[in-house]
Amino acid sequence: MRFNLTNTMVSVHATYFSLLILISIQFIYRRFFFPFFQKKLVSPLFI
């Protein structure tokens, strides 16, 4: 039971951490790369 709970917590933290990384990457992309690339290429992921 304790191992199961620890495993679930680790999984939740990993999901939250990867989501945080994804959000920060998207923010950096919007902040720096999107004004440079928006005339050539518009990605539907970052609108």
UniProtKB/TrEMBL annotation:
Source superkingdom: Eukaryota
Segments crossing the lipid bilayer: 12-29
Keywords for the protein's UniProt record, in alphabetical order: Membrane, Transmembrane, Transmembrane helix
Protein name: Transmembrane protein
